[in-house]
Amino acid sequence: MSLSMYQASVPVFLRLLGNLSAILDKAVAHAEAKKIDPAVLVNARLAPDMHPLARQIQIASDAAKGAAARLAGVDVPSFPDTETTFADLQARIAKTVDFLKGVTPAQIDGSEERTITLKIRGEDVHFPGQAFLLFFATPNFFFHVTTAYDILRHNGVELGKMDFLGRP
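RESULT FIELD:
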């Protein structure tokens, strides 16, 4: 049995966004327990030239909804990048999940050869759908989810590998 484009995308994004939401819950609890202003964590970054936590989550959201929309051949929903609190970030994740749940297998399956065009650094880059999903969209999504995890872990939030992977 082969793995469909839908199975390789939407369920993966949904699972990791759910795990990311649970990680943010742990960050809120950590901030409360340690009497840390939550804004410190929301604005934390691993290096001066890296995006802070809030932006990592915005980009992860954009990667998931953008990949699903492009593969489905529908407009990518636009969410303003205005999140400044954990509640805002949770709402962003929830909106992304709601969008993904509305994308059907019939819309994505068969998109392996659909041409996906992105503007990267001012230039059009073209991918066949399967290469876009496997070599661009999914790694980009995982990079930003991982970086969000790493920022929080670096700042003392008690997280382990299973928080990232989630439980079956």
